[in-house]
Specification:
Length: 348
């Protein structure tokens, strides 16, 4: 039977939920005294694939239900736990998160010792719990370094931090907002790039993609797509890694190319909304709710797409003589001396 919390749960339904979860707040697991009101909410939002049945509903205390605002209950619980983790210090890396999750029994372990054998065209990885793994080996045409791609369990992975025995390649610390935003993103979107690591002695260490791996851990992922180098030149690899996070860092998202993509998507979504065969009256507020529901967008993301739609309409207008001089990226060139930032400052 489908349950939608726009109506009141029956007493029997509430008892059924309490039988599963206990009289505890799902957000933190703390007991809710008998003299305090129980409240109920969806664990996972409908927009994120949550079902509208009793097994997607859990009890909450009144305080935490107010604090969570519009967040789904499951997301709010992760946000609270993330806050608990980040209160442990300022300079936290993936290794600290792995230790935290092992301590909390979210994972059974990490960083297990392995024996890696180069067999010419393939690599063999002898593991304590997963037997022997076999993967094709590839060779970088520039450096001659060998590497392999694999989906590896968290038990075999560690963070490439500095310690007393080695200089680590991990270039930066975890950021709360970035981990949380990626966690929400990966609930409904795929991962486009593997994390990158190296074999050091008898460990597989990740040095690129730690925010991605950290976010995926919070989604419940326990295996990770990785690209792993066998025996790279540490100095050159370190220089390459620093450059990738500095001078060659990805351009900011808000370029004219992305405005075109976001604006086009916004326009297509609006056409789909207008053509919905339902009894609801079509309105701007209804369209915003449609975007939030169908694409899991926040209000800020909806506004950004609307601005992109407006900017793109201006750029693509046949009477706009300046559009040909707008750079696709965030840097101007001799042929295209204008950037979207320059134009948006004048348009706004």
């Amino acid at each position: 039977m489908a349950i939608i919390l726009k109506r009141q749960l029956t007493a029997d339904e509430k008892e059924s939920i309490i039988d599963v979860h206990g009289r505890v707040c799902f957000a933190t697991g703390h007991p809710i005294p008998e003299d305090q009101n129980l409240q109920f909410d969806h664990i996972r939002a409908f927009a994120d694939g949550g079902v509208s049945e009793l097994d997607n509903i859990a009890p909450m205390c009144e305080t935490h239900n107010k604090q969570k605002g519009s967040l789904p209950l499951g997301v709010f619980r992760v946000k609270l736990r993330l806050g608990e983790f980040f209160r442990r210090g300022d300079n936290l890396t993936l290794k600290h998160l792995l230790r935290y999750m092992k301590e909390k029994k979210d994972i059974v372990g990490f960083g297990q010792a392995v024996v890696v054998s180069d067999n010419g065209d393939s690599v063999h990885i002898d593991t304590p719990d997963n037997g022997t793994l076999h993967h094709p080996l590839y060779t970088c045409p520039t450096t001659g370094w060998k590497y392999f791609y694999a989906t590896l369990p968290v038990t075999l992975l560690d963070s490439d931090d500095d310690d007393e025995q080695k200089v680590g390649l991990q270039p930066r610390y975890l950021i709360f907002e970035k981990v949380f935003d990626l966690y929400r993103h990966f609930q409904v979107h795929p991962v486009l790039q593997p994390s990158i690591g190296r074999v050091y002695q008898d460990r597989i260490l990740l040095f690129d993609g730690q925010h991605k791996a950290a976010a995926l851990l919070w989604t419940g992922r326990r295996s990770f797509e990785c690209k792993v180098y066998l025996d790279p030149d540490l100095r050159l690899l370190n220089q390459t890694n620093i450059s990738a996070h500095d001078k060659f860092a990805q351009t900011r998202f808000y370029s004219s190319i992305m405005v075109f993509k976001l604006g086009t998507e916004f326009g297509n979504d609006f056409e789909n909304y207008k053509n919905l065969e339902d009894s609801a009256v079509k309105s701007e507020a209804g369209f915003v709710k449609y975007l939030q529901r169908e694409n899991s967008l926040t209000s800020g993301e909806v506004n950004k797409r609307f601005r992109s739609y407006l900017y793109n309409s201006i750029l693509k207008d046949e009477d706009n003589k300046s559009a040909q001089f707008v750079s696709n990226g965030n840097r101007s060139t001799d042929d295209k001396p204008l950037t979207l930032d320059m134009l948006s400052n004048h348009w706004c």
